[in-house]
Amino acid sequence: MPKKVWEGCVQRLYDAFWSLLEEKPYAQISVSELLERAGVSRGDFYYHYRNLVDLAKDAVEAEAKNWDDLTSLFLNFEENDMEVAAEQICFYLQSICRQNSVKAQRLSTLISPHGSMYLVEAFREGFKEYIVRYRNLDLEKFTNMQKILFEGVVGFCTSLLVHLDLLKSLSREEMKSLSLHLASVIYASIRSHQEGGVAPRHNAA
User: Fold this and answer.
1) What are the tens digits of pLDDT across the range 106-117?
2) Which candidate, 188, 150, 183, 201, places its Cα nearest to that of 82?
3) CA 95 → CA 79, 92, 109, 160, 191, distances in Å?
4) DSSP at 85
5) Residue ranges of the chain assigned to CATH 1.10.10
6) pTM of the complete model beyond 0.90
7) Per residue in 17-70, pLDDT tens?
8) Can you tell me the distance from the alpha carbon of 167 to that of 177, in angstroms, rounded to the nearest whole number?
9) Architecture of domain 3-49
């Protein structure tokens, strides 16, 4: 199948998956109803995916990469000034709190009775993969402490997204305090121990 044609099929499958997840628990979604809603043939589906689990993982990981507001905490992080970094993070967190989009609706579905821990973990892995790729991080060169901090901050940031209601409940001062804490932990997890001491910055573009 031509690449552009298949990319269109993939998006229809993703959209159909999220649509069905709003209506019923993940464990009750079938390939047949997914294909019917997406308008994709069974042959095309199985040419690219072994089963619904593979498709669900891809759909959720793709969604994780749509959250530029949060990934910007890592991608455009100012490592030389913790106050500036905290201000940047506070700005991004406030931006996330204003989200009333399809993205926010899909995330809330992950922790609803229709979601599952598998889907939340897939979201976390997608978010982590995006950061590693665009921040140009080599996790093999991380110290054990860096690995613990990095996994911790990725998990915490994932929690911020899937529990937007908790984030929105914070006062202005609490948001500032949280931002400063995140700045210090992110810095400790991604800083370079190579000569120069500072990891290179990359824009998301």
Assistant:
1) 888 988 899 999
2) 183
3) 21, 5, 20, 13, 25
4) H
5) 3-49
6) no
7) 999 999 999 999 999 999 999 999 999 999 889 999 999 999 999 888 877 666
8) 12
9) Orthogonal Bundle (1.10)
